[in-house]
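G., the chain you wanted modeled:
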Amino acid sequence: MIVNRPTLPLAQLGLARAYALQARSAQGADADAARAKARAAYQDFFTLWKDADPNIPILIAAKSESAKLQ
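Predicted structure as tokens:
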């Protein structure tokens, strides 16, 4: 991934949120698959922002959202 683009981490977060929404509206294996994709996308976002200030509100929100998927 190219990390010097400021919109890339936010796009990754949007993808994670889309998969999480899909997981909530799907059932069975489809929900499980979407949940796994959401977890992976959140992890990619956290990797991109590993050096970010931990007090950034969007990062705090993403951590909370990710924890709900566990």
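Residues 28-48 form the longest helix (21 residues).

Shout if anything looks off.
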